[in-house]
Amino acid sequence: MESEVQRSVSLRANRKGGNYRSHNNHSSPSNSKDVEGGGGGLFSSGKLSSDYAMKIIWKKGFIRLVLVAGILWMLLILIVLLFHIWSCQSSYLFFSAICNKESKVYTILNTWGFVPQQHRCPIPVISNPDRIVIPEGRTHDQIIKNLSYVMEDKPVKDGSQPSPLFGGHQSWKQREKSFKPSSSMKVHCGFMHNGGADMDPVDVKYVEKCRFVVASGIFDGYDVPHQPSNISDRSKELFCFLIVVDEISLDFIKENVTVLEDHNGGRWVGIWRLILLKHSPYDEPRRNGKVPKILTHRLFPQAQYSIWIDGKMELIVDPLQILERYLWRGKNTFAIAQHKHHRSIYEEADANKRRKRYARPLIDLHMKIYYYEGMEPWSPKKSTVSDVPEGAIIIREHTATSNLFSCLWFNEVNLFTPRDQLSFGYVVYRLGGAFKFFMFPNCEYNSLFVLHPHTREHSSKVEWVKSLSEFKGNGSSMKESRGGLGLWTPYPADLKSVVLPKVVRTSKAG
C-alpha cells in the first residue's frame, strides 16, 4: 500500500515537471527508486524535470523583461515629445537649442523621429509693431562690392532662337563664371532690352518711393487679390503693397472685384496697388510668375526690404513683425521656409513628375545636369537644413549678395524647368559659403497666411509628356520658344551615363 502511494506521488511530480511516462511502461522497483531518490546519472528523470522548469522560468522572465523595456522606451519617447512641445512653446532661452532647426540637438532629435511635425505653430514675434526698431543703414557685403547686369541680348548666330530674350542667351561658360563670387560682377538677371515685362510709366514712378515692399503676383487669371489682415497703421504707412499682374489677369480681376483708379492713373484693389507688366516674356504662365517672385529687386530697385507672397495667399501677420522675426533678429538678409515634405531636390523632382508639374523627361534632364555638376542628395552632413524650400514666401534685404543669389536662381529657372524649388538648393551649393540664409520651420510658414484655392487649375499639354519623342513632329509645338532653352541646347558633356540617385519617398503626401 505504501509503495502504491509513493508511485502515485512520484507520477504526479513527473507530470508537474513535464516528464510524462508512456502508459505502456510498467514501473519497476528500480524505476521507482530513480524517481523517488532523484539520483541515477545524467539522464535521470529528476534532473530533466529540474532543467525544464528552469528553462520555463527563464523564458517567461525574458519575455517580461522585453515587454517592460518596450513600455519604458515608449514612455521615454512620449516624455521627449511632450518636453519638446512644451519647451518650444515656452519662453525660456535655455530651450532655444532644442527648438532651433539649425542646431545639432534639433537635428539629432529630428533624425530619431522625436520631433513632432506640426502644421501650424506660434510665431515668436514682437507683439506690438510700433515697438519694433528698424535698423539704420544697410547690411554691408563682405565679398561683392559692385553688382551690375547684362542688359543687351546677343542672339545665336544660326537664328534658330528668337531674340532678344527676356533672360538673354546665356552661354554655358557665362553660367559657370557667374557662380564664382568676386568683388565686381556682371551677370545675366532678366530684363534684357526689348525682352518684355514692361511696366507702365505711371507705375515706374510710383514704385520709386517704395523702400519697404510687400509684393505678390497673379498671372493668367488664376487668382484675385486677397486683402491682408492684422496690418498695423505703421506698416500701412511704411510699406508699398504691390501686386504684379499680366493683361489677362488685369481683365479677370476687373470682372470679379472692384478696381479703383486714382487721379494719377494708378489701379487699386483695397490696399494693393496693381502693377501691370505688358508683353509677357514667356509662353508658360508659371514661368512668367517667377519674374516678380525672384527678381523683386529688379522690378523695384529702390526697395531695401521685400516680402514676397504667392497670389493665392492672404497675409495675416504684420510685415514689420515678419522682418523683425526673420531678418533683423538674427541679422539675416534672406529668409525662406523649409519644405514640408522634402529635403532633397531629387525627391522634389520625383514628386513633380508624379504630380505632372512639367514634362517628365525634361525634369530628369534638369536633374542629370545638376547631379553631373556635383549636387548630392541632401543629408544631415550638409550645412543646410534642407535643399528644398517652400517658395511661396520669400523675405529679403536687397544686398549685393542677396541680389546675386536671386539673379542666379532666376537664371536656372530661365534655362531649365520653371520649377524654382528644384534650383534653389543647387544655387546655394554652387555659391558655397558665400550665401547665407535663414530657413525657418514649415509650421511657422503655415502660420503667416491663409491659403485660398486658385480660381482654376493650371494645365498644359507639356505636363503630360512622358518621352522626348513626343516633342517631335506635331509635338514640337509643346516646346517653349522663349524659356527653358538650356534643355534643348547641347550640354558640354556626355550625360548619357549619368544615373540619378535612387529616391526614397519619405512622405505619402509628397
TrEMBL record:
Polar residues: compositionally biased ranges: 1-11
Q: Where are the transmembrane segments?
A: 62-86
Q: Where is this region: Disordered?
A: 1-37
Q: Which residues form a coiled coil?
A: none
Query: Where in the sequence is the signal peptide annotated?
Result: none
Pfam family name, one: TOD1_MUCI70
Keywords (alphabetical) are: Membrane, Transmembrane, Transmembrane helix
- UniProt domain TOD1/MUCI70 glycosyltransferase-like: residue ranges: 147-454
Protein name per the record = TOD1/MUCI70 glycosyltransferase-like domain-containing protein
Organism source for this protein?
Salix suchowensis
